[in-house]
């Protein structure tokens, strides 16, 4: 059993002051694989103090020094890519497609930020003034257990490029991945205090970090409920915020969509990362005139989304992350049946042949209205709903009738029509005939899916404060 007992503060790998231990399980086997020693308030205060000391010098660095560090971080993480992949499979149950397709983004985020800095201008003339983009200060980065390393890289790379210093609080459920990352940070010769990483529970150190007067910025990816709490904490001294929160994404299949490609894409989006992504397309909006075709196409495509051992390349859906999450998803499947929805595929319990592990049957409900809770609430598991519509305007109305607005999809054979529909959908990102976003475009949500944007210059400027100098 692994003992994970390191934090990264002020350029050193240290043992946390906190003594509480949190268990780590393999979700595919339910086996206890380790425990992590959690940081406490003393560790949180030490990390912020280190970041504050480092900000004095790091904020004054030029492009060359920041680019050099970003490239060192990218190279160091690239050398540990196999370790990151193995950790994600072991403690998270990620399937081969996710591990091979998304984990390489971890070092790539730092390389992208370095490339962006080569042409980004921190001083710009504006009328009779000069606008200077200055680093915001000490930034706290709080990341969830799903796609942990990618989210950390996304936020930390932007902050470092901006000249800010960082305190990272990852989830205790991603401790193996975090350990690999902090070892890579230490090997990259990061100036002391520029990056600090402490693993701990939100209710122990989260409030300490998000209320600390020396913290100027909070970047958070996670649930809407926690985002609301962070926003309240930040209001006390007007911290800058980037909050990427929950979603209930619509996938609109217009009546001229090529179902042979659109339906498998819709299922891929919905079941992505074992159904544990905030930007998943979990509401499939189908034209009533082709509803039977859509349902038949879903049934035909389901063999490609079978649950099983995440190490098997043929597996389409792995386990959910914990017993708690398994119980939550099962409760939603029961709720859908109680609300009057019908099962097209899946249902309660584990998939056939899997008697252990937190595996959920990939489930698709039909006979769903947009007012049912299974159509309105984020389930965070492999559970999708199919909702029929008659006209394009009705599809847009259903899509927008949601408290969330993170990512949406439109499938159509008519480019002009797809654009017309996409521009009416209330979401931070709308994808046409594709399921993965553009890393150079802004990413973030509207409504209860959050505020602020990440990626490229939008993510960089989230850690910069514009100031005007007028002569």
Structure, described:
By secondary structure, this protein is an alpha/beta fold. It folds into 2 domains: 2-245 and 447-470, 3-Layer(aba) Sandwich (Aldehyde Dehydrogenase, Chain A, domain 1), CATH 3.40.605; 250-432, Aldehyde Dehydrogenase, Chain A, domain 2 (3-Layer(aba) Sandwich), CATH 3.40.309. It has helices at residues 41-58, 63-79, 81-92, 96-102, 105-119, 148-162, 175-187, 202-211, 224-235, 259-271, 291-301, 323-338, 373-376, 392-400, 415-422, 456-461, and strands at 2-4, 7-9, 12-14, 21-26, 31-37, 123-126, 129-135, 138-142, 165-169, 195-197, 215-221, 240-244, 250-253, 283-287, 342-345, 363-366, 383-389, 407-411, 429-432, 450-451, 464-470. Strands 15-16-17-14-13-18-19 form a 7-stranded mixed β-sheet, sandwiched between helices. The chain has a 6-stranded mixed β-sheet with strand order 10-9-8-11-12-20, with helices on both faces. Strands 1-5-4 form a 3-stranded mixed β-sheet, covered by helices on one side. A hairpin with a 2-residue loop joins strand 6 and strand 7. Helix 2 runs antiparallel to helix 5. The protein is globular, with a radius of gyration of 22 Å. The mean pLDDT is 97.
């Amino acid at each position: 059993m692994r003992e994970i007992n390191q934090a990264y503060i002020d350029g050193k790998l240290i043992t946390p002051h906190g003594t509480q231990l949190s268990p780590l399980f393999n979700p595919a086997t339910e086996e206890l694989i380790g425990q992590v020693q959690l940081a406490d308030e003393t560790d949180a205060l030490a990390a912020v103090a280190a970041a504050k000391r480092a900000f004095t010098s790091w904020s004054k660095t030029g492009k060359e020094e920041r680019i050099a560090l970003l490239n060192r971080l990218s190279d160091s993480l690239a050398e540990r890519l196999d370790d990151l992949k193995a950790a994600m499979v072991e403690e998270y149950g990620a399937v081969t497609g996710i591990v091979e397709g998304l984990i390489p983004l971890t070092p790539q985020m730092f390389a992208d930020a370095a490339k962006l800095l080569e042409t980004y201008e921190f001083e710009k003339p504006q009328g009779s003034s000069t606008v200077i983009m200055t680093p915001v200060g000490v930034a706290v980065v709080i990341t969830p257990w799903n796609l942990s390393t990618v989210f950390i890289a996304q936020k930390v790379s932007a902050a470092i490029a901006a000249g800010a210093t960082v305190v990272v609080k990852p989830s205790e459920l991603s401790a193996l991945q975090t350990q690999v990352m902090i070892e890579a940070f230490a090997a990259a010769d990061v100036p002391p205090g520029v990056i600090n990483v402490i693993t701990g529970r939100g209710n122990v150190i989260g409030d300490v970090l998000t209320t600390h007067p020396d913290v100027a910025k909070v970047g958070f990816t996670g649930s809407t409920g926690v985002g609301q709490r962070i926003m309240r904490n930040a209001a006390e001294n007007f911290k800058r915020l980037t909050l990427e929160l929950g979603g209930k994404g619509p996938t609109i299949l217009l009546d001229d969509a090529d179902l042979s490609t659109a339906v498998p894409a819709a299922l891929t989006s919905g079941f992505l990362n074992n159904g544990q992504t905030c930007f998943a397309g979990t509401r499939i909006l189908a034209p009533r005139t082709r509803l039977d075709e859509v349902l038949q196409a879903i049934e035909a495509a389901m063999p490609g989304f079978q649950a099983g051992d995440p190490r098997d390349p043929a597996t389409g859906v792995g386990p959910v992350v914990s017993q708690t999450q398994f119980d939550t998803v099962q409760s939603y499947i029961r709720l859908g049946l109680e609300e009057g929805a019908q099962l097209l595929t899946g249902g309660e319990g584990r998939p056939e042949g899997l008697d252990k592990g937190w595996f959920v049957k990939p489930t698709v409900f039909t006979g769903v209205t947009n007012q049912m809770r299974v159509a309105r609430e984020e389930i965070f598991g492999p559970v999708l709903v199919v909702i029929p519509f008659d006209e394009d305007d009705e599809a847009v109305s259903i899509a927008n009738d949601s408290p969330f607005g993170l990512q949406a999809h439109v499938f159509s054979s008519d480019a002009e029509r797809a654009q017309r529909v996409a521009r009416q959908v209330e979401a931070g990102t709308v994808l046409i005939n594709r399921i993965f976003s553009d890393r150079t475009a802004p990413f973030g949500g509207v409504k209860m899916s959050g505020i602020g944007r990440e990626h490229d210059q939008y993510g960089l400027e989230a850690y910069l404060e514009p100031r005007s100098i007028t002569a």
